[in-house]
Amino acid sequence: MENHQITAAQISASSQYDANLPPTSGRLHFKGGYGSWATRVNDLHQWFQINLRVEANVTFVATQGRYGISGQRVTEYKLQYSKDGISFQVFRQHGENSDKVRKIYFKLPNTSRKNRKAIN
Prior knowledge:
Elements: E1 11-13, E2 47-57, E3 77-82, E4 89-90, E5 100-101, E6 111-119
Antiparallel strand pairs: 1-2, 2-6, 3-4, 3-5, 3-6
């Protein structure tokens, strides 16, 4: 994401607050525009999705808050993955019963084609 090998066309989201906060602004260390992606509504049904286009081993996921503004960040989310982009599985950290991810880095157990973060 950060190095732009994942194109803007591969990034989507459930909503965006306005034209200044699109999903493509959700890249790691993005400093342009308003510094982040933001949802239109604040509920548990919002998501940010990357289409990898081919099955791939995803080994790390990193998140950060909005550039230049402290306190605007997601602190918990569910990570989901899919091979077909229709049926998603929830990733659970080893030894955890909760869907909520709290650590910054972790390893996904399977290959996937699409990864989705459901914002909590």
